[in-house]
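FORM 7B: Structural annotation worksheet

SECTION A. Query
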Amino acid sequence: MSSGAGAPGAGEELCELCAAPAGTAHRHLLDLADRELRCACRACAVLFDHAAAGGERYRLVPDDRRLLRDFVLDDTTWADLNIPVQMAFALRDSAAGRTALFYPSPAGAVESPLEEATWQRLEEANPVLRGLAPDVEALLVNRTGAAREHWLVPVDDCYTLVGLLRTHWKGLAGGPDVWNEITDFFTELRRRSRTATSADHPLRT
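SECTION B. Predicted structure
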């Protein structure tokens, strides 16, 4: 999956459905055929805010962020995921019929193999995962430094994080600029998130 949205600061972005100005803090639609995010103006976001509106082509990315204060992911399970960095995100890929696991890198989002049994254990320990909206909502894990944080976020947040690494990473270790950007990203995410538990909303309707 990639983002077709224009680069921040590249000028006013247009709705990729109707070509109207999208506004600075606009929503996105996931184009399921191309697996790309499309900028949406407010009117198109409202129009597609119904499951049937986008047909089989478009799905509106949600605008809800939840910090899961009691999420269960121990160090052993994290090690089993074989993520080489301290951040990762997982989403339900409806086309593939499985959960896909990614981590951000200077080259973009890298998919890491995920055993279905491992994901099932996580779901059993954290029923909230059973309510993930397919394709457009993700579990985001942050274990940088002393952090052990877990969110349910719109998938475009994950690609914003990926974009920060791609834009600001320098040398072998990334350099101070990229780590400052990552710190700011998670600070802003905490500000925008509401707190939930791993048992909340086990089934989305």
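SECTION C. Observations
The CA atoms of residues 120 and 126 lie 10 Å apart. The two ends are 25 Å apart (CA to CA).

SECTION D. Sign-off
Analyst initials: ____
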